[in-house]
Amino acid sequence: MPRLFVDMAYKGSAYHGWQRQLNALSVQEVVEEALAKILPQATEIVGSGRTDTGVHASQQIFHVDVPEGLNPDKLQYQLNALLPFDLAIKSCRWVTPEAHARFDAVQRGYHYHIIRQKDPFRHGMAYHYITPLDVEKMNEAAELMCTKTDFECFSKVKTEVNTFLCTLFKAQWTEDNGNLVFYVSANRFLRGMVRAMVGTLLEVGRGKLSLADFEAILDGKNRQEAGRAVPAEGLFLSEVRYPESIYLS
């Protein structure tokens, strides 16, 4: 069957993450139920990766196999008509039949948003954190991370992975109208990695950790030595990249 890559965005506040679960509502479940009303048979979708409970996505990619002759633009319209307000389909593109939304991704990026003042319009979409921070030091620590490849110290303890190795392409803090945004991109991420990473960088910004302390945590590979995981509400999966060769349109 022909295969589509579907680019979607969602506000994760009402969902227990991307992955379908037995006793909790997930983004995947809601999308698959909508597809079941459009396509002639029940269809399982495969996402580029999991997002945890409460995490948002400005770009999540999933692949789906569809019948011959289907119109991608019509599918986008139909899905958006069926999906709730907090889920949106941005585009549908034909890909090669073997293209895989998870395994073919070569780069993923996340943004973490911190607001410095209470803002009712960003409630649930950013972390309200008012403690003074040394952003320059936080960026020095972020640059240091890009020289490392083992991030076991930022991984959830009980997780089944074969390796803790990741290649970071960029890690940087920027200020936006007095608020802070952390961007990090890599070839892959571990479970809980970005939230633990941000929590530890905030400790550097508060002056609780020196750069030497931060490097020792990275080299020590002990999750208990790193900072706490910051709240999910500030985290967005914002970028998933693939080789252009997999696209047919």
From TrEMBL:
What are the protein's UniProt keywords?
Isomerase, tRNA processing
Residue positions annotated to bind substrate are: Y110
What EC number is given for this enzyme? 5.4.99.12
The chain positions of domain Pseudouridine synthase I TruA alpha/beta read: 9-104, 148-243
Q: Which residues form the active site?
A: D52 (nucleophile)
Concerning Pfam families, the annotation shows: PseudoU_synth_1
**Reaction(s) catalysed by this chain's protein:** uridine(38/39/40) in tRNA = pseudouridine(38/39/40) in tRNA
InterPro entries found in the cross-reference section:
PsdUridine_synth_cat_dom_sf, PsdUridine_synth_TruA, PsdUridine_synth_TruA_a/b_dom, PsdUridine_synth_TruA_C, TruA/RsuA/RluB/E/F_N
Give an example GO molecular function.
tRNA pseudouridine(38-40) synthase activity
- NCBIfam families the UniProt entry points to: hisT_truA (TIGR00071)
Its family?
Belongs to the tRNA pseudouridine synthase TruA family.
Its biological purpose is as follows: Formation of pseudouridine at positions 38, 39 and 40 in the anticodon stem and loop of transfer RNAs.
Subunit structure, briefly?
Homodimer.
| Listed name of the protein | tRNA pseudouridine synthase A
Q: Which organism is it from?
A: Shiella aurantiaca
